[in-house]
Amino acid sequence: MKYRHVVFIVILILAIDQTLKFWIKTHMFMQQEFVIFPNWFRIHFIENEGMAYGLKFGGDFGKILLTMFRLVAVVVGFVYMKKLIREKYSTGLLICGSLILAGAAGNLIDSMFYGLIFNDSVGYEVAKFMPAGGGYGSFLHGRVVDMLYFPIYEGYLPNWVPFKGGDYFVFFRPVFNVADAAISTGVIAILLFQKRFFGKHMLPKTAEQEHPVAKDHVA
């Protein structure tokens, strides 16, 4: 696998992620929802100021810190991918790394620029791209657009369920985006197939590998 393949995967995921976010932001008002497949898949527009799946971190300062962390992680990620390619790591690992890198870059774009290029989604108003009055936030203070919602089960739990019996329950509740999905897919795949991905690189080097002998050496 070549470095250009990594770049291609990252650009492809970014294009899908940003195209969907751009459409959502300019065609839907906050909390608007479209049912794609009844009972399990909906497009549901929300924004979050923190980490993946709506998690938050440390208010305004935490927002800047998180955005800067994403920026550093993306830059280091591209450099590290070059190292993995030089050392001939498995194609599977490189694909997973590309997915994680693309996901981090996708949410980074939202955090860095969306506050500058979109006005706020308030009430039933749809946001405008590059509004005359300026965006809703400053550089590094954009909110991440989320829209993928999979409430696979919604209803009241049976009374015999420990602790939550009789409560209204939703599974799977988080609303996320393509970038989040790319990161999660990459991380989960690495955890599941780490032996296959890192196999030969985890083996101890032999004496011959550490101190190679010239082929024309005569005893």
From TrEMBL:
EC number(s) on file: 3.4.23.36
Entry keyword annotation includes Zinc: no
Transmembrane segments: 61-81, 93-117, 168-193
InterPro entries documented for this protein: Peptidase_A8 (IPR001872)
Keywords for this protein: Aspartyl protease, Cell membrane, Hydrolase, Lipoprotein, Membrane, Protease, Transmembrane, Transmembrane helix
Residue numbers annotated as active site: D146, D180
Enzyme class, UniProt record, top EC level: hydrolase
Topology in the lipid bilayer: Multi-pass membrane protein
Catalyses which reaction(s): Release of signal peptides from bacterial membrane prolipoproteins. Hydrolyzes -Xaa-Yaa-Zaa-|-(S,diacylglyceryl)Cys-, in which Xaa is hydrophobic (preferably Leu), and Yaa (Ala or Ser) and Zaa (Gly or Ala) have small, neutral side chains
Pathway participation: Protein modification; lipoprotein biosynthesis (signal peptide cleavage)
Subcellular location, record wording: Cell membrane
Domain of life assignment: Bacteria
Annotated signal peptide: none
Molecular function terms from GO: aspartic-type endopeptidase activity
Described function: This protein specifically catalyzes the removal of signal peptides from prolipoproteins.
Family label: Belongs to the peptidase A8 family.
Record protein name field: Lipoprotein signal peptidase
Organism: Chitinophaga hostae
Gene label: lspA
